[in-house]
Design brief:
The complex is a heterodimer of chains A (585) and B (401). Chain A is α+β, with helices and mostly antiparallel strands and 585 residues long. Chain A is 37% helix and 16% strand. Chain A has helices spanning 7-18, 47-56, 61-68, 94-105, 171-180, 237-245, 268-274, 306-314, 365-383, 397-408, 432-443, 448-470, 474-478, 484-490, 497-527, 543-552, 557-561, 568-584, and strands spanning 2-3, 24-27, 41-43, 69-75, 85-90, 109-112, 115-120, 125-130, 135-137, 141-143, 152-155, 158-161, 183-190, 193-195, 205-207, 230-234, 282-287, 294-298, 324-326, 329-336, 353-355. In chain A, helix 2 packs parallel to helix 9 (365-383), helix 6 packs antiparallel against helix 8 (306-314) and helix 12 crosses helix 15. Classes of the chains: A alpha+beta (585), B alpha/beta (401).
């Protein structure tokens, strides 16, 4: 039973269904399933890799992104393959339709309705209560309500309830969730949409697209071909002046919004405040769809009043006569606090209640979809009587994200970065299907054609890796100037180019990965040590750290390291105390 | 390592002749141990008590008892204040060891103080630095923090360039110069590490007339009479502290191995003094094997062919006359000795240099290397700055301090 039909909800329902459970998706607006209310793009650095991981776990986002793509770019192409970021501009009219079709083809049942509460509890829930008081029974639940949970929209002096422009808001369920769990408020925002024909595109820099035969899904038949252009514009001192002179009218800076906003992907107001010396911020003009006359202004997220938004937009060269069709706004919503859910995305203290997407504090379609997949799969498992599973942070960005959300806690909307992974060189977009095949089959979500294709890829990769080894090509692969085509030329048998590339990158990074693994295993040993009793008078542990430890009572050094207030020097003292204690016994 | 509960003992004042010397004992039962030797009543030294006692073979001395809550180490402690004649102090230590005490390891007193919450890690570092730089406090900590700051800064720039290429904020060129600055910072840490190293004693041994004293002159870089005889050393030769490649050595000239009478006795004293921490240069102009007695000391032996201008033997050839081989010998000595933590710092320097090479083509590899440097310098998996400094400080501290 999945509550919410956004990117998290759709993947959750599909994943639950793949585990063999009877999946139901409840949404108040079945015609707005998998909408793209923010920018019409999927992928990017780390995010693109996550989309590949969703594909490797049998999810739908990758295929839908391939099918809806109007432009493709491989970010960071000038850098090494571990940080390449595949990203598409998606036709945001087509994308929701593709997802709805996918749902229709599956065994997921869609129930229209607004959920106001859950039945049963506090440990085991038995059904959801709709607005008209009807109860839909279920065995396990996923809450994926996005910004609709207690959503309030802001623009300038205006304030109105809603999850997104034109959408409803979920106040009943918000009351219910807030009453049961510790919650906080987060905020995010979006940019104005302009009428493309009102712009002077010749004044802007057209962005090249890379059509390198890429596809997100191993199952997609043809690679992405670019059909539409994106443009790059730059703001100037007039734009920042418009913001600076009107900051007092911003709901954020008037402190009307109490929720924390994202530092990465900040509102334009934040950029002006945080980089006072800069006025030339890049703005990406992205077409919303093939049919739409509108374009999205990526980088100009704002909640200033309409007249200020006009002044800002029209200050940009090429935008002098720009018409704004939809104004930007900020949205504030409820999210679950740290400690209310575990690594399987199950809510603490419950047996069958899961959550995914923005309610866990993330931002981004990709993050939401991946979490939805995990929560849905685990809900499906619980409904069928199996235990829920947690992903491994060493094997994928999904695991990295879950570890961050559960372990460290966050104080702003969480976006995935490649730098968040400890072993980034291993978490590449090219080997996602190899990394997650075992987890996907174990979880029960990787099946059928997708599984066969992944298994074929693994076979091909194994044989090409053996070929490289047997022919003694490893030293050649490691040389910085060696290109994969050279290796292809030396290996006589015809190899699948994708698996050759993956095997080639594996060898290139192998020395660094081995070093990471050595360190990692040494660290794990230390992190497992019990927190030692703190001696009177300090023993090198700061007062702040001592208080944090006494309050939270971590069991191991690994847990202690995650507490705020515990610094590197404190960990050092704790480690020595722990080792000293071990020596004396 | 069931060492915590042992009674440890060491001389707390500098070696050599002095008016008074202090011998320190720490650990549960140390008061009873001294009371037993002095045939004093039980409990005479418990609490903050002072007593004039006599230990057979060592004569009269003042004993000071410290209760755990007042002592330096946070354990029961006794300090014995006696005449500062080296032989007398050695005999007293001998007696105490015979009664069940154990020789303290370098920094063990301070280690116990730290473990019992009597002293902070920062203080240890300062203490060690002060000890080693003649009272000037120059914490190693500062150099490591600076390195960490540089590496973290470089890493931040690098990650910005990787994640936000589209924002156009950061250039890899900028990352390169930041990593280069980190290399500089790591090199400074290396220098500090070497400065914090305790000086290693190098005994120049050999038969009479093999050119030992001349080699000593050459290694010190001085032609003039070099001696600055250390008080308390009677029959052995000059000792001189020198620095090579930032590392500290205490060069010791010795009397000929085959000397007779007093010289022979003096050489025996040198042998008694040597242990596994020392280096012994064995000089010979005939390629002669070092004698068994020298090998038995456990010192690291470095055979040197002296007077190389007079023969064609193969080996580490040094001529005091032409100066041949002196630089090579210095390099050998530097390579033989490693400052505590030096290996880690050298590894960091080489990883940072590798990161500079990768930064433009594969910033993700440069970043991986920087992360590893960060984890060596400051991470849980490697050695955190506190630990690097504390560990080093504990090794460097004078025994008994």
């Amino acid at each position: 039973m999945v509550v919410g039909g956004g990117h998290a909800g759709v993947e959750a329902a599909l994943a639950a269904s793949r585990t063999g459970a009877e999946a139901v998706l409840v949404t108040p607006e079945p015609d707005r399933i998998a909408m793209m209310p923010c920018n019409p793009a999927i992928g990017g650095v780390a995010k693109g890799c996550l989309v590949r991981e969703i594909d490797a776990l049998g999810g739908a986002m990758a295929m839908a992104a391939d099918a809806a793509a109007v432009q493709f770019r491989m970010l960071n192409l000038g850098k090494g393959p571990a940080v390449w970021g595949p990203r598409v501009q998606a036709d945001s009219d087509i994308y929701p339709g593709i997802m709805t079709e996918t749902l229709n083809r599956s065994r997921v049942r869609i129930v229209p309705g607004m959920v106001t509460a859950l039945e049963g509890g506090p440990a085991r829930f038995t059904g959801v209560v709709l607005e008209d008081r009807t109860v839909v029974p279920g065995d396990a639940f996923v809450i994926a309500t996005g910004t609709y949970l207690g959503g309030i929209l802001y623009r300038g002096e205006e304030r109105w309830p809603g999850g997104r422009a034109g959408g409803l808001t979920s106040t009943g369920l918000n009351r219910f969730i807030s009453g049961m769990f510790h919650v906080e408020r987060f905020k995010t925002g979006t940019s104005p949409r302009v009428v493309t024909s009102s712009l002077d595109l010749k004044a802007l820099e057209a962005q090249e697209s890379h059509d390198a035969g890429f596809r997100f899904s191993i199952e997609s038949r043809r690679p992405i071909r670019s059909a539409m252009k994106c443009y790059l514009a730059r703001t100037n001192s007039d734009t920042t002046a418009a913001v600076r002179e009107n900051l007092h009218r911003s709901p954020l800076h008037r402190r009307a919004i109490e929720g924390r906003g994202p530092r990465y992907c900040p509102s334009f107001e934040d950029k002006v405040l945080r980089f006072p010396d800069r006025s030339d911020h890049p703005i990406h003009l992205e077409p919303i769809s093939r049919r739409s006359r509108l374009s999205y202004l990526n980088g100009l997220s704002t909640s200033l009043p309409q007249d200020v938004q006009y002044r800002m937009v029209r200050s940009i060269p090429g935008f002098e006569k720009a018409e704004i069709a939809l104004f930007g706004y900020a949205v504030e919503y409820t999210r679950l606090s740290w400690g209310t859910f575990d690594g399987t995305l199950k809510l603490t203290g419950t047996e069958n209640l899961f959550a995914a997407g923005q309610i866990l504090g993330t931002s981004g379609y990709e993050e939401a979809a991946a979490l939805g997949l995990l929560a849905g799969a685990n809900a499906g498992r619980v409904a069928r009587g199996d235990g829920p599973l947690a992903p491994d942070p060493e094997e994928g960005y999904l695991g990295v994200m879950v570890q961050d959300l559960v372990g460290k806690g966050i104080d702003e909307p969480y976006r995935l970065f490649s730098g968040r992974a400890e072993n980034r060189l291993h978490l590449r977009q090219d080997n996602a299907h190899l990394r997650l095949m075992d987890f996907g089959t174990g979880l029960g979500v990787l099946k059928g054609v997708r599984l066969e294709l992944a298994a074929d890829f693994r076979t091909a990769w194994t044989s090409v890796a053996a070929g490289i080894r047997e022919q003694g090509l490893e030293p050649l692969c490691r040389r910085p100037e060696t290109r994969v085509e050279e290796i292809a030329g030396i290996l006589k048998t015809g190899f699948d180019p994708d698996s050759l590339r993956t095997a080639f990158y594996d060898v290139r990074y192998s020395g660094y990965l081995a070093r990471h693994r050595r360190r990692r295993s040494a660290a794990r040993e230390q992190w497992a040590l019990a927190v030692p009793p703190l001696p009177e008078g300090g023993g090198g542990v700061s007062t702040e750290a001592r208080q944090a430890i006494e309050k939270n009572r971590p069991r191991t050094l690994g847990e202690a390291a995650l507490l705020s207030g515990v610094r590197a020097s404190d960990m050092e003292a704790l480690l020595l105390l722990a080792l000293g204690r071990r020596c004396s016994t | 390592m069931s060492r915590e509960g042992d009674v440890i003992v060491a001389r707390a004042t500098p070696p050599g002749l002095s008016a008074l010397a202090v011998v320190r004992l720490s650990g549960p039962g140390c008061a009873a141990l001294v009371e037993g030797l002095a045939q004093a009543p039980r409990g005479r030294l418990s609490g903050m008590r002072r007593a004039l006692i006599t230990i057979p073979g060592s004569g009269d001395m003042v004993a000071l008892g410290w209760p755990p809550d007042r002592s330096y180490t946070g354990e029961e402690m006794v300090e014995l204040i006696c005449h500062g004649i080296p032989e007398g102090v050695a005999a007293l230590l001998e007696t105490l060891l015979g009664a069940g005490a154990r020789s303290a390891l370098p920094g063990e007193f301070t280690g116990r103080a730290w473990r019992n919450g009597r002293i902070s890690a920062d203080r240890i570092i300062e203490l060690a630095a002060a000890t080693e730089t003649g009272g000037r406090v120059e914490p190693m900590d500062r150099a490591v923090s600076e390195l960490l700051e540089r590496v973290s800064g470089a890493l931040e720039t690098l990650e910005g360039a990787i994640e936000f290429q589209e924002e156009g904020f950061l250039e890899l060129e900028d990352c390169r110069s930041r990593i280069e600055e980190s290399v500089g910072a790591a090199e400074r840490v290396l220098l500090m590490a070497r400065r914090l190293q305790r000086s290693v004693r190098v005994f120049i041994t050999g038969r009479v007339n093999t050119g030992k004293s001349t080699l000593m002159n050459l290694l010190c870089g001085e032609r003039a009479a070099l001696v600055d005889p250390e008080p308390g050393t009677t029959r052995d030769g000059a000792r001189r502290e020198v620095t090579m490649a930032g590392k500290r050595f205490l060069l010791a000239d010795t009397p000929g191995f085959d000397g007779e009478g007093l010289d022979g006795k003096a050489f025996q004293l040198v042998l008694d003094e040597m242990d596994g921490e020392d280096v012994a240069l064995w000089l010979s102009d005939r390629g002669e094997e070092p004698p068994g007695v020298l090998k038995a000391t456990g010192a690291r032996l470095l055979p040197v062919l002296s007077r190389s201008d007079t023969h064609r033997l193969e080996g580490l050839r040094v001529s005091s006359f032409t100066g041949e081989g002196v630089d090579l010998l210095k390099r050998e000595l530097v390579g033989l000795v490693q400052a505590p933590g030096e290996q880690e710092v050298l590894e960091m320097v080489s990883m940072l240099r590798e990161a500079v090479r990768w930064v433009e083509e594969a910033p993700e590899i440069a970043s991986e290397l920087l992360r590893q440097v960060e984890s060596i310098a400051g991470g849980m998996s490697g050695i955190r700055p506190g630990r690097i400094a504390v560990e080093r400080a504990l090794k460097v501290l004078c025994v008994g301090k």
